[in-house]
Write a structure and sequence with these properties.
Number of helices: 22
Largest sheet: 4 strands, mixed
Number of strands: 6
Structural class: mainly alpha
Distance between the termini: 28 Å
Shape: globular
């Protein structure tokens, strides 16, 4: 098998007495990890764990303060045209806001429907004298009924839409009505997305290699054909300038095609490994099918926490002075400096806790995949314990998860604040192109930093799961492993990312299409919807999100199995005893290629240096003569 340029240069330089390079890719994996994840574990990162616990205690204190001082019910109470709030103060017995001129067509020219509103204890009928007192004829009087226990609105949805439009929430009633009508189809979308994701995993297990190689061959042939077409067009061109341009385009296509062909030939072994790992990951998910429920449980817990977080947020939001928002019946709140600080703490808590749940998911999948990988060659072949992985995360590695999630939370918090400020600047009328360009560049940099931190933490969690060491040490070992195998990590991330993206897209589109067909043909929905567009979009989102949960396990499994493979290779070479059967064909092929052509003894480094063209170039660069 192949190593990456950095590791080759460092190792060969070391043997030839050259100076040590700036970036040390580290030594090979220690033999103590040749048997897989450490079983005799100890607690890691205890101080960060205590900091995390203290942070949660701070959240509890803030929650108590919010529930004690906040009053979200007042946020729901509307304001009348005389600025009194229905259900509060002098209007405590009158909970409903009534809009007499809601259907009056003259309002659009004489003012707003909210210029004449009042609080009442019961919703009036069309026969009420209140309409006559406002000069409204019987044609525009209406029977009102309670809506959200706060407003007196007509039973007609079109009439309610007039209210929503004037309040600045146009078509909200239609949207809620369509989603409520299509709730059964939304449930169908949940089950359908899992079925489609399951079939997509079967497709990857059987056809991933074939699909990739057919794509490569097809793309190479396409570039060659395009070059031929342009050359043929050049031969038929009358104008000499056009002929030259067509010839240049043909040569460019052929050169790019040749370079691509050489790259694929040089990286053939690494591409084969990446595709083999992808197929092995699909095998792991089928053999450990319970692992797909880990993200489901994680998302349920996360949704529960977010619901709790929103509940506390509503109470925090209501800590302040509540006033009327312009000429609408909606309330607004003014915060004190202390409330603003509480809001920032509460916002950071959302990012940290959610990132912690994500980290726990990554650790559990990584630990289970590592157990599955190294179980081969034992009497527990093909088995990995999700419960044991969960126990390890809670008992030994809460501190490590806290550090990784804290780093992610910092990046997410900074990005949130920056994007909010960027939005404010753009809405403020900033037209300077330089300012917009700088803001876009800074946003892109933050996004890149976030992706780097996410990559580092994910690979660090995998090493924590295998080595049972602290987060920083594991992150450094993961970085060294990546540095020694740059091409392999790049290829597995590219291929896994492509398959994951198209899987999510395919499941989302498939779910949306089937649900759209149901919505437009099922008698229970086709005649009761304003439009099937919003429920179809909701079905696509459901399919995409649930496919993302399913394929998240697959993506994590690819990264985990690749690291296990590389550690196994560094410890045992071609003779690893814990290799899954899915990887054996690759090793058999590499072992056959590594056989020397003569009976003369060949050094290990010499053998490795001659495996591919890339290492031959490295050797020539390091020769003294």
């Amino acid at each position: 098998s192949t190593w990456d340029i950095s590791a080759t240069i460092f190792r060969m330089s070391k043997e030839e007495g050259e100076k040590k390079p700036l970036f040390d890719p580290g030594e090979k994996t220690e033999q103590e990890f040749s048997q897989g994840p450490v079983e005799d574990r100890s607690c890691t990162d205890c101080i960060p764990c205590l900091v995390f616990v203290a942070f949660i205690v701070g959240m509890i204190i803030i929650t108590q303060k919010a529930y004690r001082e906040g009053n979200p019910q007042q946020l729901l109470a509307p304001f009348a045209s005389d600025h009194s709030q229905c259900g509060w103060g002098s209007m405590s017995s009158k909970n409903y806001l009534f809009v007499p001129r809601l259907l009056d067509p003259t309002v659009s020219t004489s003012g707003s429907i909210f210029d004449f509103t009042y609080c009442t204890n019961a919703c009036p009928l069309s026969t009420s004298s209140i309409f006559a007192s406002y000069g409204i004829g019987n044609a525009y009087a209406y029977d009102s009924e309670p809506y959200f226990n706060r407003y007196c609105l007509p039973s007609s949805q079109s009439a309610r839409d007039v209210f929503f439009k004037n309040a600045g929430i146009e078509k909200a009633g239609q949207y809620m009505s369509d989603l409520y009508t299509a709730w059964k189809v939304l449930l169908i979308a949940c089950g359908l997305s899992f079925v489609l994701a399951f079939f997509y995993m079967i497709f990857l297990r059987c056809c991933a290699k074939l699909l990739v190689w057919l794509t490569f061959i097809g793309f190479i042939c396409l570039l060659a054909i395009l070059g031929g077409l342009f050359w043929e067009k050049a031969n038929n061109a009358v104008d000499s300038g056009d002929k030259l341009n067509y010839q240049i385009l043909a040569v460019i296509f052929w050169v790019v095609d040749f370079i691509l062909f050489l790259v694929i030939c040089c990286l053939y072994d690494d591409i084969q490994l990446a595709l083999t790992v992808i197929q092995a990951s699909a095998t792991f998910i089928f053999q450990q099918f319970w692992i797909v429920f880990v993200p489901i449980i994680t998302i349920i817990i996360t949704i529960g926490y977010i619901a709790f977080w929103i509940s506390v947020l509503i109470y925090i939001y209501s800590i302040g002075t509540i006033t009327q928002k312009g000429n609408t019946p909606l309330p607004s709140v003014s915060w004190s400096d202390e409330t603003k600080q509480i809001w920032y703490y509460h916002l950071f808590a959302l990012f940290w806790i959610v990132a912690f749940f994500i980290g726990a998911l990554q650790f559990i999948v990584a630990a289970t995949a590592a157990q599955w990988y190294f179980s081969h060659g034992t009497d527990q072949a093909g088995k990995g314990s999700v419960c044991k992985s969960l126990y390890w995360s809670i008992r030994y590695h809460l501190g490590s998860l806290a550090i990784g999630s804290f780093l992610l939370a910092i990046i997410m918090f900074i990005r949130f604040i920056f994007e909010y400020m960027r939005k404010q600047v753009e809405q403020g009328g900033a037209t300077n192109r330089l300012t917009k360009c700088l803001l876009a560049c800074f946003s892109c940099c933050l996004r890149c930093i976030g992706q780097c931190v996410l990559f580092i933490t994910k690979n660090a969690y995998i090493q924590v799961a295998i080595r049972s060491r602290c987060f920083c040490s594991s992150a450094w070992k993961a970085f060294q492993l990546v540095l020694r195998n740059l091409v392999r990590f790049a290829l597995i991330n590219v291929f896994a990312g492509i398959f994951t993206f198209f899987g999510k897209l395919a499941v989302g589109v498939g779910t949306a299409f089937i649900c759209w067909f149901i919505l437009t043909n099922w008698s229970e929905t086709k005649n009761n919807l304003y439009s099937p567009i919003l429920p179809t979009i909701a079905c696509f989102i459901i399919g995409y999100v649930l496919a993302n949960l399913f394929l998240t396990v697959y993506d994590l499994a690819c990264s985990s199995i690749l690291q296990c493979f590389l550690m196994d290779e560094e410890c045992g070479g071609f003779s690893g005893s814990h290799r899954p059967p899915a990887l054996e064909p690759y090793f058999a092929e590499m072992k056959e290629k590594a056989k020397p052509n003569s009976s003369q003894p060949v050094s290990y480094t010499h053998l490795r240096a001659h495996e591919t063209l890339r290492y031959l170039v490295c050797r020539l660069l390091l020769e003294k003569k």
